[in-house]
Amino acid sequence: MENSDLSTSSSPSSFKHPGQIHNRLRKFKDQAARHIIAFGGISVIITIVLIFFYLLYVVLPMFIGADIHPVARYKTDSDAQTLYIAMEEQAEIAMQVTDDGNINFFNTHNGELVNKISLDLSGQDIKSIAASEVDQSLLALGLSNGHARVFKHEYKITFNGDTRVISPFISYPMGEESIELDDSQQVISKIAIQDGEDALVMAVATEDNRLLLVTFTKESSLLDDEVSYEREISELPYPESKINFLLLDKEQSLLYTANEEGHISVYDISDVSEPEIIQTLQASTASETITSFNFLAGDISLLIGTSGGDVSQWFPVRDATGKEKLTRIRSFQTSSGITKIAPEYYRKGFITASDNGEIGIYHTTANRTLLTSSVTDKKITQVAVSPRDNALLLQDEDNQFHFYSVDNEHPEISWSALWSKVWYESYPEADYVWQSSSASNDFEPKFSLVPITFGTIKAAFYAMLIAIPISIMGAIFTAHFMAPRMRSIVKPSIEIMEALPTVILGFLAGLWLAPVLEDNLPGIMTFLLFGPPAILLFAFAWQQLPQQIKLFVPEGWQAALLIPIILIIGYVSFSLSPVIEQTFFGNDIRSWLSNEMGIPFDQRNSLVVGLAMGFAVIPTIFSITEDAIFSVPKHLVNGSLALGATQWQTLVKVVLLTASPGIFSAVMIGFGRAVGETMIVLMATGNTPVMDFSIFQGMRTLSANIAVEIPESEVASTHYRVLFLAALVLFVFTFFFNTIAEVIRQRLRTKYSTL
Fold it and tell me: pTM value?
C-alpha cells in the first residue's frame, strides 16, 4: 500500500515544472496589471467627465432667466388714487400713499390692513411725490400751497416666541409740520428730494413755471443728537418747455428735468450759488412721448420709458473736450407703451410695466431681457420691488393688487457681458473689464472673462517664447552631440529643476528677480540683443582655430566652453547698464518708456513671468524632447551617416523628423503647464486684468484669478459661479489643445514611422 501511494504521488503527470509555475504566475500578473491599468484609465476618464459635469452644474444656473410666481391678488379697502407704493425688506408689509393724505400699511399676501396713518395736510392737496434715492424710505409730498411734507416709513421687527412681528410706523426727520419751499405759495407740480450727510436738498417745479432748489443745511447740536436745518432757496433757469419729470441725483450735484415730448435739460448744481444748464437734448422721437423717467440704482444712469414701448439707458460720458455729456447707451423694446419703471435697489436691473398688463425684467449691464410676462389685462399703474429684489407688487387701473415672488438670482450674466465689450457706467467707451467687487453698494459688477483669458494666453506665450528655443535646442545638443559622460551630468541636473516648487519660483521672481530686472533693464535688453550674436561669433571663431588647439577639448564637451562666455556677456551687459541708461534714457528708462514711447512699465511684468515660468517649463520640454531624440533608432542615424550625410543633415532630415511626435508632445505638455500655472503668475505679476500685450505690463490669468478670488466669494453667488465658469473655460481650453496635440502627434507618428 505504501509503495502504491509513493508511486502515484511521484508520477510524471502530477509533477509541475518550475517553469510552468513561473509562466502561470507571469500570466496572472499580466492579466492583473492589464485589468488594474484599464481600471485606472477608465477611472481617470470618469473623474474628468465628472469634473466637467460638476463645473457645468455650478455654471448653468447663471444663464437661466428670471421667473415669477403669483402669490396673491386682492383689493384693499382704500378707493383713493394711489400715488406711491413700496415694500419693506421682508416683502411682508406694503406701504401705500393715497391722494387723500393717507398712508396705508397692509399685508402683501392678503391685503389685510395693518396700520393706517392720516397726514394733516391742513386742507391742501397733494400735487407731487418723490422718494430719496439714498434712503428710499424718505418721501416728500409737494402740496398745493408751496409747502412739502417730509416723512419716512419705517418698520420695527420684534419676535413673539418664534413668530416675527413687523410693526410699521411713520417718522418725521424735519418735524411734523409742513415745510415752506416757495414763498409765493404756488402749487408744487413736481418735486425731488435727496438726503445727504451735510444737507437735505429738494428741487421743486411750481405751477407758474419756476424751478427752485431748496437746500436745508444740517447743523448738529453739541449737547444732544438733535439736528436743525437752515434753509436756502435758489432759483434755476426754467427750461424751454414744461417740466413733467424732475430728478435729483444722490450726490446733489446734477438735476435733470424732462417733458413728455422728450426734451431733457441737465443742470449742474454742485455750486448752489451758480447753478447752470450744462446740456439740453432730445431723448425721444416725435411719434413717442416720455411716460417714465427714473434713475437706475446708483443715480448715474437714467432710464427713460416711452409710449412706444422703448426703454433706454443714458449716462454721462466724457467727450474729447473733457466735458460730460448725457449719452444714450443701450435700449430695450417692449410690446406696448411703458407706464412705470421700477429700478432694483442694489443691482443694475429694472422692471417695466406696460399699458397692456405686461411686465418685463431687464438688466442693463448684461443687456439682457430676463422675463416678459402678461400678468393682467388691465393697465398697470404702480410697481414696487422689494429691497431684496425677490418680490414684486403691482397695482392695475382697477385698484387691484398683484403680488408675485421673483426668482432672479444672476441677472448680471449674459454671453455679451462675458465675452463682448460692455459700456459700463462712467467709462468713456465700451471695453473688456474684470472687476468683481467694490466697497460701494452702487458698484456695477464687471465680469468680462476676456482680460483674464487674454492674460492666460499672454503668460503662456512669453513663457514658451523663452522655454521652447532653450529647451529644444538644449535637448538636441544633449541627445545628438554631447559626450555620454557630460550628458549623464547635464540631463539629471536639468530634470531635477522640475522638482522645485512653483511657489518658491514665484517667491523668488516676485521679491528678487522683478527688482533686479527693474534696476538693470538696459543690461537685460543688452544681454538679450547681443548675447545670441556673441555666442554665434564665438562658435565661428572656434571653428577657425587650428585643429591642434580644438583637439584639446574632447568631442562632445565643447558646450562647456560657452559657460564662461555667457557669464562674461552677462557681466559686461549688467556693468554697462547704468552707463546706457544715463546716456540714452536720461538716467530713468522707466520714465522714458512711459513718457517718450507711451509704454507703461510695471515692476512685475511679462518679462518676469516669462523668465520665471519659462524656467519652470524648460525641464518638462527638455526631458521629453531629449528622450524622443535619443530614442531614435541608431540604425537610422548610422545609415544616414554611412550614405555620406553630415551630422547636421542627419539631424534635420532623419532624427528630428522621426522624433517630431515626441517633440510636439513635449511642447504641448509644456504649454499645458504654462496655461495652468498659478503660483508663479500670482506672485510674479501685478495680477492686473489688463488687455495689453506689452512685455512691460503684467496680466491676470484664469488660474491666478480663481486662486485669488474664490476664498472671498460667497457660495452660490454670481461671483462664485463666474469663477467656476473660469475654471470650466480653463478646463475646456486645455482639453481642446491637448486633443488637437494628440491628433497631430498621431499623424506625425504615422507619417514618419516608415523611416
Answer: 0.87
